[in-house]
Amino acid sequence: MTAFSATGRPFLKMHGLGNDFVVLDARAHPLDLTDAQVRAIADRKTGIGCDQLIVIEPARDKLADAFMQIRNADGSTVSACGNATRCIAHLLMEESGDSHTVIETNAGLLDAERGENGMVTVDMGPARLDWREIPLARPVDTLHLGITMGPLADPVGVSMGNPHAVFFVPDAEAVTLDVLGPPLEHHEMFPERANIEVAQVLSPDRIRMRVWERGSGITQACGTGACATLVAAARRGLTGRKAEVILDGGSLFIEWQADDHVVMTGPVALAFSGTLDASLLE
After folding, report:
1. What does the pLDDT look like over 172-225, one tens digit per residue?
2. Packing angle between helix 223-235 and helix 82-96, nearest 10 degrees?
């Protein structure tokens, strides 16, 4: 398939707590974007601008309503994105009129439900805690990864369909995440790179978290990161299995259930719609 190059491809600009997405619907007309084209669309000065580009495709699995392809701002493909899942779930439920939908991703099938006051709840599946599942470069206790960089030390490793390293700190605001995020993302422990979270436990049911997302940099919110942070905090005995995670863009409500599935609830928003110009796809 050659890269899509025609004009007039409609898009939606959506966000979950400021973690923003360009959404393209390729269910009727297939779309094959190069990494360079994704970067052009994601550029905040010369493109539309986004943390991730989302392509809705026909479901491969008969149990799902659609497949969600996720591309980071640098063009790389990833398997999971919690805030984007809520946005796509909202679109699919608005389209069908149902209060439930199933979204297929490279990380598996995700169930989503419409909540109250515009909220959407997604079962993000089980937290993966084995070093091979995250994945890590070598066998290690994922509760203590043994990584230190500047003021950050001793992170917890968690996969929510994508790799996370959660550092607990006394003051999340004081961390120079723009400086520490890039080298930690590319640390030799993470063969597929990693999302880096700094988390400050405020109480047994409230956590302040900031995030450096692999391939995107600092973002206002990260749904899988919020899930990973709650799991990491509960594993360390710092919180219970249910908490409000406060991100730069607002709060997500996370529960690590008894069956090990992690459930995330939060808002979605539509910012604007438009059509892609051919110049972004050259």
Report:
1. 999 999 999 999 999 999 999 999 999 999 999 999 999 999 999 999 999 999
2. 120
Given the residues 50, 87, 222, 227, select the one marked as catalytic. Answer: 222
Beta strands at 148-149 and 119-126: parallel, antiparallel or unpaired? unpaired
Residue type at position 32: D
In a domain, residue 52? The reply is yes
Which one of the listed residues 50, 81, 87, 227 is annotated catalytic?
Answer: 81
CATH of the domain at 87: 3.10.310.10
Residues 181 and 65 in one domain: no
Establish whether 81 is a catalytic residue: yes
Q: What is the torsional sign of CA 93, 105, 130, 236? A: negative
pTM exceeds 0.85:
yes
Q: Which domain holds residue 171?
A: 128-259
> Which tokens is 156 given?
């917890």
**Residue 50 bears catalytic tag:** no
Residue 7 pLDDT:
54
Mean pLDDT of 234-245: 98
What tokens were used for 35? 């990494």
